[in-house]
Amino acid sequence: MDARAHERYAGDHEPIDPVAGHIPGAVNVPTSDNLLPDGRFRDVDSLRRVYAAVGAVAGAMSRRTAAPA
Questions:
Q1: CA 36 and chain centroid, separation
Q2: pTM beyond 0.85
Q3: Is-contact 42 16, C-beta < 8 A?
Q4: Smallest Cα–Cα separation from 37: which of 46, 26, 25, 48?
């Protein structure tokens, strides 16, 4: 999960990190997508939809963290 602004995730604008772009396999949900226009966090159901849209579902294990078979 990469919470930076889309421009940084895509490597279009990188003011901080020495290498632009994202770690391969990372998905982008900018921090701002977690917030309402007034700066408060979205409700739980709304956040679940935001994260489900990028494949981040509660209780799911990634291939990288799953126990070996």
A1: 16
A2: no
A3: no
A4: 46
Q: Mean per-residue pLDDT for 14-37? A: 89
DSSP for residue 32 = G
Give the residue, 23 or 30, on which the prediction is more confident.
Answer: 30
Instruction: Reduce the secondary structure of 5-66 to three states and give it as a string.
Output: CHHHHCCCCCCCCCCCCCCCCCCECCHHHHECCCCCECCHHHHHHHHHCCCCCCCCCCCCCC
3-state secondary structure (DSSP) of residue 34: helix
| 45 DSSP 8-state letter | H
CB 12 within 8 A of CB 4: no
